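Thread: "does anyone have the structure for this chain?"

Original post by V.I.:
We have the sequence but no experimental structure in hand. Need at least a predicted one for the grant figures.
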Amino acid sequence: MQSNKKLHLEVITQEQKVFKDDVDLVLAPGHDGQIGILPGHIGLLTQLQAGELYIIKGASITILAVMKGLLDVNSDNVTVMTDSATRAEEIDIAKVEAAKAKAEQALKQKLSKRDYAIIQSDLRKAVLELKVVRKHRHFDRSTLG
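Reply from O.Q.:
Generated one for you, C-alpha cells below.
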C-alpha cells in the first residue's frame, strides 16, 4: 500500500454535502457486511445499510450515522449517497432520546401500515444515532497512533 495515496470521500444527502475530504480509509455498512475501502480499491457500486460510517485520516476517526443509501468507488473517489448522515459530534443525545421514547410510544398505538413503517424508521435512526455517539465518545477518550 502506498501511504501517500488518499481517497477523496464525499458523503451526500438530498439536503447537503455532509463530508468532503481526502482520507486514508473508509469503513462502510455494506448490504452484506462491513466494507473497507483503501486507495487503489477496484470500482464498486453497492447498497449501504443503516449503520456507522467510519472515516479514518491519520490518527483521526470521524464516525457518521448513515441511513440506507449507495456507495460508489471510482478510482480513488468514494461517494456515499444516503437518506441521512449525521456526524457523531452533532448528535444531541437528549433530543435523540426524546425522539426514541416518542417513537416507542407511538408504536404502541393503532397505526396504519404506512405510519407504522415511518415510526419504525424514526426509531431505527434514533437507536443508530445513540450507538454512534457512544462510540464517538469512546474514540475521543482513546488515543490512536
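V.I.: this helps a lot. The mean pLDDT is 88.
O.Q.: and Helices lie at 93-107, 113-141.
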